[in-house]
Amino acid sequence: METLLKVLKEKGYKITPQRIAIYRVLNNTKEHPSAEIIYKKLEKEFPTMSLATIYKTLEIFKKSGLVQELNVGENSFRYDANVKDHPHIICLKCNKVDDLPENLFTHLKDEVGKVSDYKVLSKQLYFYGYCPVCKGE
Amino acid sequence: METLLKVLKEKGYKITPQRIAIYRVLNNTKEHPSAEIIYKKLEKEFPTMSLATIYKTLEIFKKSGLVQELNVGENSFRYDANVKDHPHIICLKCNKVDDLPENLFTHLKDEVGKVSDYKVLSKQLYFYGYCPVCKGE
DNA sequence: ATCGTTGCAAACTATTTGCAGTGTG
DNA sequence: CACACTGCAAATAGTTTGCAACGAT
């Protein structure tokens, strides 16, 4: 949370209650929420806040490296306050998005750099399947 | 292309010139086009075909395992007639989407199955960087 | 006091749906 | 010749934009 304040100040963005609240939601959940879900979580606390504010804030957070944007295959983005390059796993039934440990995959970026002529900067690894709850059903 | 005819017949879908053309576009390109791009490529040949037809057709192709849908991070899907689980690399400047060889990553699905309690069915691996043309600029 | 930020409404984009007419099997 | 498919137009969903009022520094 100190990170948020520091980074916003550094980049010349103002610190507002809405931005703090949005960051808090992202930081206190493992759910990888969409803009809509963040909006719903905050509507009691900020009844007048609009979705546009969420989107504008997430845009700033992205540019500042405070969150990363995930594309799990729905037609909406999800957001993660953990900005480290780590893989995700998505349940095809309940659409839950979980983290996977990073360490198994740290070497991949370099390997890709070796086999392609691209300059590789980042990666997004998504695995799809059934989560422990759904696989039993 | 025989694949297309066979699969459509098997699943009880009708064979129409539009479906053949859409599959042909996907099969003859390495570009991983979006619905919009397929539409543009076919508008001279099929001036009356609508985007809705493209979407409906891609939906059928997806369900039949004839194409896979990619989510490279733009706000639109891209489609690939190569339905094998293979990784992609995306240029952050020109948005080109290239294939990467599959072999480097074949073991990952099993490894994920070992470290998580999910039943892993498929994966999408996206690497981001600059392509050979753009990295020089 | 200034200038970035908010909140509303409207615009926009990708995709989906309803339905009447059409054409494949 | 039935029923799935097409094409159009309208609906929907996620996201973005314009702008006047607001509020942090």
Automatic annotation (TrEMBL), chains A, B:
InterPro entries (alphabetical):
FUR (IPR002481), Fur_C (IPR043135), WH-like_DNA-bd_sf (IPR036388), WH_DNA-bd_sf (IPR036390)
- Keywords, alphabetical: DNA-binding, Metal-binding, Repressor, Transcription, Transcription regulation, Zinc
Cofactors (names): Zn(2+)
List the Gene3D superfamilies. Answer: 3.30.1490.190, Winged helix-like DNA-binding domain superfamily/Winged helix DNA-binding domain
Question: What Pfam families does the record point to?
Answer: FUR
Amino-acid positions noted as binding Zn(2+) in the UniProt annotation, renumbered to this chain: C91, C94, C131, C134
How the cofactor binds, per note?
Binds 1 zinc ion per subunit.
GO MF, one term, reads: transcription cis-regulatory region binding
Indicate yes or no for the key word DNA-binding.
Answer: yes
One of the protein's GO biological processes: negative regulation of DNA-templated transcription
Question: What family, per the record?
Answer: Belongs to the Fur family.
Q: What is this protein called?
A: Transcriptional repressor
